[in-house]
Amino acid sequence: MTLSIRKTATAFAAALALLAPLGAAQAQGIDLDSLEVSLDYPDPWPLENLIEEGKLIIATTGKTQKETFIGDDGTLQGARIDLWTKLAEDLGLEPEFVRVDWSGVMPGLAANRFDMGCEGASWNNDRLTSPDFFLTRPVKVAIDVAVVKKDSGIESLDDLADAKLGGVKGEMELQHLLSTAGQDETDALALPGVTEARLALLNGQIEAYGTGIHAASALLDGPDGDQFKILPQPTAVGVGGFCVNAREPDLLTAVNFLMAKYRTDGTIKALNEKWDLPDTSEMLSVVGY
Amino acid sequence: MDFDLSIWAVRGPYILQGLWLTLALVAGVLAISTPLALAVGLALEARSRWLRAPATVLSWMVRGVPPLIILFIAYYVLPIVLDLRLESLTAAIAGFVVYNTFILGEVVSAGLRAVPKGQHEAIAAAGLPMTRSLRRIVLPQAMPSIIPPYVSYSMDMVKGTALAGAIGVTELVTRANQAIVATNRPFEILLGVAIIYGVIDAMLIAVQMWSERRWDHQGHVSP
Amino acid sequence: MNFDPTLIENALPSLLYGVRTTIWLFLAIMGLCTPLALLVALARVSRVRGLRRAAATYVNVIRALPLLVILYFTFYGLPSLGVFVSPFTAALVGLTVVTTAYLAEDLRSGLMAVPRGQFEAADALGLPTWRFVWRVLVPQALPVMCGPYFTRAIVTVKATSIASLVAVSELTAQSMAKVTETYRSVEFLAFAAVVYLLLTSLMAILQSRVQRRVTLP
């Protein structure tokens, strides 16, 4: 599974490499190919609107495998935790993680309790236009997929029309699965979380589980993971990033700057490899990031 | 499905650290809301309209709103409206105290109603001071009707403390849920959680049995 | 904080679906619980020791078990034994079993308020048990039971929100789904709070009506 994603990513990179020589290598007599482009940034970055001076307060559920979760030793870890920690350090701040249930993340951003939140918010129109928070540059290409049991006989998206569908309540991934299969919201089993969705799939209470490629890969790597498979065609493709407190436009600028840096210097890619997550960061250039 | 309780050897210490927060919540909320509930119960049954009316309206509003919303108000709305930034645990205790005070206040009020009206009149006629008549005559008679629902709602509250996870209190269930997501072992972990709650609630039931025996002036049908 | 009512307008169909589910679930629970809890409460004050013990065990064990765990095992655990329960049924059964235990305890407090002398008097007169219960005990206990009964009903309206755990699309679940979908919280939380307040206000109005009718002289 992860293989196919990496293959796709590599294909995109190869295509870009082919395109590059076709572009203008010269402008006004300057040899563009030999130019070294790098950006400078203030260190420490002066941030006027932080909730607490010297601290970057980040809300996280600690309930997303491989991204932000509690390890065997009881500490918060994962690819996102590593990234946020680095982000805070590069801004000259101390990261402080507040573990809240998902229901508390949005009210907390609106109420000026947290500087940042969201593990990987898929972009949609409501979220992009929300006055309660800013969406940062994307950290990943969000690939929504359908997970089924190997013995279910479901081989492609075409087989989903009459299947019992499910996913996590309110998530875009579930809605994309439903619209792909042409089913209505009321026909689906909307489960409270990823654990319940996994159980429902294992139990046969649902036949296909609509989720993101990151959660799907964690599912396949977990217990009974060999019983599941991911349908080869995605149900939707978008991008996902973090949320920044709407009172802190300077933090948004800083985060966006650093995220672009982490994308180009390979930090995000390295973290995805470290945590065995499908790396989609290189595909972001397709949509201009 | 295999059932492997050894998961508790690895994850137990982390989850059990949340037990202290749960117990702190339970103890704090019960200790503060019990006297307040008595005051609310008396206000609800007061002869003066100036006491009764505000108590009735507040009770209607507080009991009518889900406790989660009250916690959200304590943690997310107070900073905006009153510029009051409570810590997670403080906000959770404050929110649960408000909710519990009115729930238990209704229990007290119902218990007071169980005392025959003639007695209030007799007390007034005898010119007994208010607090003394309350302590010596009215409350002892109301106790048998107050204790069972009082303990019931306290047991309800014990389990309700799990809601505090939404405002950053990493109590028992919040930690259990984190462990469930990380390990995919919901049944083993939930069984342990059920046993822990069972022990806390068993203590409350013991308090109920003890106090019922103590206050049992009327007894049950049995010969 | 920004408040955008058009969000609620757009989400109204699915929110109202949630409201309907909450109301049906609540009515079904109370319809089942009320007679069951009265029976358990009567068993708790019965003169038959076995009955008393059984009722007490049921009430105490169920009150000590978190509903979350009961629902989890019935809905997500039983299928591995080949037993499938629909979400609504799982929630209804779980909430009924639990609410009955709590309500029985609330009602018992009313029965306790009836002076013991009356039990002895009924005995002396040779009044049949059921006649005594319906004609003497319950009518006298009603004024005292009324408050706790409605408080329990009010608590139960909100307790139905736990059904979202087993994929029942009730009010809280539908509101939280909209929060996740739109990342806007204030609007949907306010909507849910107002609807719960309306439903519980209906209970409160009913309570004051009933209480006025059943007050002891």
UniProtKB/TrEMBL annotation, chain A:
Keyword Secreted: no
Residue ranges occupied by any Solute-binding protein family 3/N-terminal domain in the UniProt entry: 55-279
Family matches, as SUPFAM superfamilies: Periplasmic binding protein-like II
Signal peptide region: 1-27
Alphabetical list of InterPro entries matching this protein: Solute-binding_3/MltF_N
Keywords, sorted A to Z: Signal
Name the record gives this protein: Solute-binding protein family 3/N-terminal domain-containing protein
Higher taxonomy: Bacteria, Pseudomonadati, Pseudomonadota, Alphaproteobacteria, Rhodobacterales
Automatic annotation (TrEMBL), chain B:
Membrane topology, from the record: Multi-pass membrane protein
Keywords: Cell membrane, Membrane, Transmembrane, Transmembrane helix, Transport
Name by which UniProt lists this protein: Putative inner membrane component of binding protein-protein-dependent transport system
Similarity remark: Belongs to the binding-protein-dependent transport system permease family. HisMQ subfamily.
GO biological-process terms attached to the record: amino acid transport
SUPFAM superfamilies in the record: MetI-like
Residues passing through the membrane, by range: 20-44, 56-77, 89-112, 189-210
Record's GO cellular component terms: ATP-binding cassette (ABC) transporter complex
Compartments it resides in: Cell inner membrane; Cell membrane
PROSITE patterns referenced in this protein's UniProt entry, alphabetically: ABC_TM1
MF-aspect GO terms: transmembrane transporter activity
Domain annotation ABC transmembrane type-1: ranges: 19-208
Pfam family, one: BPD_transp_1
Matching CDD domains: TM_PBP2 (cd06261)
Coiled coil: none
Automatic annotation (TrEMBL), chain C:
Any one GO molecular-function label of the UniProt entry: transmembrane transporter activity
Topological relation to the membrane, as annotated: Multi-pass membrane protein
CDD domains, sorted: TM_PBP2
Transmembrane regions: 23-43, 55-75, 81-104, 188-206
Keyword Transmembrane among UniProt keywords: yes
Subcellular location: Cell inner membrane; Cell membrane
Keywords from the named record: Amino-acid transport, Cell membrane, Membrane, Transmembrane, Transmembrane helix, Transport
GO biological process: amino acid transport
GO cellular component assignments: ATP-binding cassette (ABC) transporter complex
Coiled-coil ranges per UniProt: none
Keyword Transport: yes
Coarse class of the protein's main subcellular location: membrane
Every ABC transmembrane type-1 domain range: 19-207
Family that this chain belongs to: Belongs to the binding-protein-dependent transport system permease family. HisMQ subfamily.
Protein name as annotated: Putative amino-acid transport system permease abc transporter protein
